[in-house]
Amino acid sequence: xxxxxxxxxxxxxxxxxxxxxxxxxxxxxxxxxxxxxxxxxxxxxxxxxxxxxxxxxxxxxxxxxxxxxxxxxxxxxxxxxxxxxxxxxxxxxxxxxxxxxxxxxxxxxxxxxxxxxxxxxxxxxxxxxxxxxxxxxxxxxxxxxxxxxxxxxx
Length: 154
Fold this sequence. Notes:
Blueprint: E1 5-7, E2 24-28, E3 32-35, E4 41-44, E5 48-49, E6 62-67, H1 80-85, H2 92-106, E7 107-118, H3 124-128, E8 137-141, E9 144-150
Parallel strand pairs: 1-2, 1-6, 2-5, 6-7
Antiparallel strand pairs: 3-4, 7-9, 8-9
């Protein structure tokens, strides 16, 4: 079966209904296994080690791309939040702008990009300025936003 979905920052696959969904390729820039502060074991075990700024797949490879990048800027590297979610670099604007470009590059025309953002340190409007593609749907639950894009024809 050809994989139709790419999760470019899969982390612990926390928002997946089936964390082993065979339709997806799970990518992250790290592997990790640790015990969180509440005693649960947390694993980051991607199929592909890769950077969302330089996705190692050809153009128009996937019908759906999930983009849930780190959203924290102020947490220490030993904190459980860092272990679970990662941390943005000081160049987060350039990193996320490049991430959006890469996600749209590997997405088939007419495909769906689902972007998840938590407004802990940076507000969503500041993030949406980093892509020229307009969202179709914005859904907010507390501080977490789900933004759905449709890749336009060029």
